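Structure (tokenized):
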């Protein structure tokens, strides 16, 4: 299950980067903020996965 979660987190981070870039390109501050939030969420989830892996 850990690998699936890592893949989902990576996909969420990539989507967040794309959303942030689109927001910057179009001047849409809300979309840019959503992209940053998605990236932060993915990074927190990834940190949790790393902690779980450390205890295995």
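Design, position by position:
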């Amino acid at each position: 299950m850990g690998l699936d979660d890592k893949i989902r987190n990576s996909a969420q981070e990539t989507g967040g980067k794309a959303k942030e870039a689109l927001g910057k390109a179009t001047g849409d501050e809300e979309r840019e903020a959503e992209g940053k939030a998605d990236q932060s969420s993915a990074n927190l989830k990834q940190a949790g996965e790393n902690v779980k892996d450390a205890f295995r």
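Reviewer-requested clarification: The CA atoms of residues 26 and 32 lie 9 Å apart. Residues 29-54 form the longest helix (26 residues).
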